[in-house]
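Minutes, project check-in
Item: structure for the 199-residue chain
Input as provided by the requester:
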Amino acid sequence: LDFDEFVGQEDVLAEDQPLRVSIEHDRVPSLILWGPPETGKTTLASLIAKKTRATFVPFSAVLSGVPELRGLLKTAQQRRKVAGQRTLLFVDEIHRFNKAQQDAFLPYVERGDIILIGATTQNPSFEVIAPLLSRSMVVVLQSLNEEALRHILNRALSDTKRGLGSSRVTLTPDAQRLLIGYGNGDARSMLTGLEFVVG
């Protein structure tokens, strides 16, 4: 995955945008990625992970608990002390942690042990504690527009390695419009519809 494969969000990821420049130069601050489902939050975190020299650690606030998180934070602290390497901690659905639980991140962010990337579908002004917000850059991701969805759909139809290119599936313009409408700004929904139609 590279920037040329990332579709949409040009207003924050165009070549001259500060976030893109900071990612390219491995100077990413802690981030809160806020947007509707399937707008590229996890994909963006993976792209940042590829570009950084920090150790990438994904963590789900839904699937894992606070004890496991504390263990990850301690490991990150040791990694920085012993090897001088930072940890990029990606926390999916960070809003699932209550405000007291979010306090656990603060000392590690402040010391630079971790670069926190939190993903949320909820307004971070209400769901993320103020001290974390003040130490992070909030990046607002928008629902994908029709042009972006069309690009993703055409890529899925032509890609022989990760898509349907080898099956030679073609869609009429009307079928493409229906699938894009079904996606309604959500690439995964659109691709799920494509899989159903082809299947």
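Outcome recorded: The radius of gyration is 19 Å.
No further action items on this chain.
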